[in-house]
Structures are given as C-alpha cells and as structure tokens.
Amino acid sequence: MYLIFLIIGVIITFILSVLSGGGASLLVMPIIAAFIGVQGVAPIMTIGIACSSVSKTFFFWKDIDWHLFKWLFPSTVIGSVIGARLLAEVPTDLLQVIIGLFLVSTVVQFKAPEKTEVEQKKSIKAWHFAPMGLVVSFLSGLIGGVGPLMNSAYLKYGMSKEALLGTRSANAILLHVTKIISYAALGLINGEIVKYGLIVGAASMVGVYFGRKLLGRISEYMFRMIVVSSMVLSGIYMLIKNKAYILSYLADVSV
Known about the structure:
Strand content: under 5%
Structural class: mainly alpha
Largest sheet: none
Helix content: over 70%
Number of helices: 12
C-alpha cells in the first residue's frame, strides 16, 4: 500500500515539477523520510532525481544552453562531492532555514515583464553560474535537495521555459551522478536505497512525460509566475518543517 502511495505521489509531484521548473525533492522528501528514515532521504532522492533528469534532458535536448552548462560543470562536481562528504557530519537544520528564507524572499522578484529579452539577459551573465553552482551543488549534496534554488537566476539570464528545464536537467544529471558515486564511496547506499531510488526514478519519468505535455499549453509569463510561486511555497514548507528548530533558536536568543 505504501508503494502505491509513493508512486502516485511521485508522479503527481514530478508533473508539477516540470510546470514549476523543479522543486520535486522538497515535496517527496517527507514521504520517503516517514517510511525509510531521514538518513535514506538524500541518496534515494539523488537516484530518483537522476532518473527524472535523464528523461527531462531527452525531451528538452534541443533547448539546452551548452555555453551555460560549461560554466556549471566544474563547480557542480566539486560542490556536490564536498557536500556529500559532509552529509553525516554537519547539522542541516540551520541550512534548511536559510534556504527557506531565501526561497520565500523571491516573491519580491516577480513582476510583469517590462524589459525585452535582451535586456533581461544582461542582469545575469553565464560566468555568474560558476560560483552559484558551487554553492547550490554543495547544499544539494549536504541535505539531499534544495529545490528550485537557482531558478530565479535562470529567469534573470533570460531563458525560455524549455531552455530552463533542459539546461537545469542536464546539469542535474552531472550533479546527481557525482553525488551517487560519493554516497556509494562513503557507504551510504545499500540494496534498499537502490530499490526505492529506482522506484522513485521510474515514477518520476512518468510524471515528466505528462508534465511535458502540459508545459506546451502555458505561456512564458505563466511559467515564470508558477516558478516563483513554487519557490515561495517550497521555502514556506522548509520553514514549517524546521519550526521546532526555529522556535528553539529564538528561545535561546531571547534568554
């Protein structure tokens, strides 16, 4: 019964993920944690999202910005290895609160498009993604997933919805394969982890297929609105999930 619930949940989540530019990990994490345990969340999500990223890359191959991908390549590898190495050693509550606050803050970035596409591209350059990719891949390796953390940067770079999904997914393959190797080397992957990771991966590929069908029916403006909304909701979720830590921290500060 749990497997059926997990599969249906993953399919629905990844349909929404395609329409919102990412963030599936934040929604699937609590389901996995409830039945497998917190320690298994990061490696299971890594295997599952690697599978979904392969299918997204296949569907949006012709839209990938390879120039941008080249800037992301080295920082993604380095950051994910370091983050995976520290997975079992660093408390992640504070990191999740910081990420949650950042995601919620993106609500102030959304407005009706007033600039031309050329002007929008000037706000973020390709080389800016190298340091950003290092930080995001490190956080992803450390806590298992950071949701649509870089989506606002992709939008400011001036990408179309297809290019965002294709480029983000191509980079995600690199990120998650590196994390899988790192987790395996550290002894964090076993037969049960692989089994559930592949189940999540197979269900996610089904969700990506149907999500792609729906994507062509929404406008670029609507896509951007959905992306920013998903970032804010993801941030709120992360803050609620860490409510006990936040209240404890505030209590200590007020003493």
